Amino acid sequence: MEPIKQELTKKSRAAKQDQRGQLIAGLSIVLIMLVVLSILYMITSRGLATFTQDHISVVDFFTKTVWNPGSLGKNGQPLVGALPMIIGSFMVTVLAALLATPFAVATAVFMSEIANKRGQKILQPVIELLVGIPSVVYGFIGLVVVVPITRHFFGGTGFGILSGTFVLFVMILPTITSMYIDSLKAVPRFYREASLALGATRWQTLYKVIVRSSISGLLTAIIFGMARAFGEALAVQMVIGNAALMPDGLLTPAATLTSVLTTGIGNTVMGTLPNNALWTLALILLFMSLFFNLITRYIGRKGELK
């Protein structure tokens, strides 16, 4: 009986493989959590140092309009007003999303509902290629093409929020388009069949049934596009002018949170006020990323309820 008992209680090869798989998966999750928590701790602790160690007023940081952390103002306080960069980031993000959304909707509807399979095979790689182009390439094209065109048709130096908007428009267009195509394909087929059976035309079915049924997916795609636009650094930095001034229109040089970070982080000493102020800008970007993710999850849940 004893050999039989040992044979029955002995772990099989498949069971040992399952255990090893669970162990590797668990260790991977722990490692990822440690990396994420370490990043969050580092950005949060250094970002808050501006207020806790350097005693900068939170209100002044978010409402003042002069950014020069290495200098003191007339009141003897460091000039660390981040409002111009915050407004610049929101302006290029919102304008790019407003510009890209109609084109993305039209492209996605054409690819998923109108184009034949051959057309889809041609357009799909084009969209994927645009998604995969590095941001520095977009920035270089913006520098040699978009900036001169903006200067020629709208005046000014060409560097400014308008040029940044055009570059971000091209960058987020494939992102919104790709995600919205997936949402359109997820609309149940019987929605289309029922609409056509009730006498609706093809365009009425498209507009009143398919597009309306995929509104939550469209909003999610737009939020993802805005999240990418808000966090984009290099391409925007090359065309926006990098002047940390309150935007005085779309044609004057301005700056975003990311452009100030990338241009200034290498010119500061760790632990000093100018360096801590840049970490605070990074903390704002982190919170904005979390905000966009929460909105995406909320929209996704509302879409599931429908």
UniProtKB/TrEMBL annotation:
Sequence intervals crossing the membrane? 21-43, 82-110, 122-147, 159-181, 209-230, 277-296
All copies of the ABC transmembrane type-1 domain together span 86-296
The record's GO CC annotations read:
plasma membrane
This protein's superkingdom? Bacteria
Just give the chief location class.
membrane
Spell out the PANTHER family in the cross-references.
ABC TRANSPORTER PERMEASE PROTEIN YQGH-RELATED (PTHR30425:SF2), PHOSPHATE TRANSPORT SYSTEM PERMEASE PROTEIN PST (PTHR30425)
Query: What is this protein identified as?
Result: Phosphate transport system permease protein
Report the gene name.
Answer: pstC
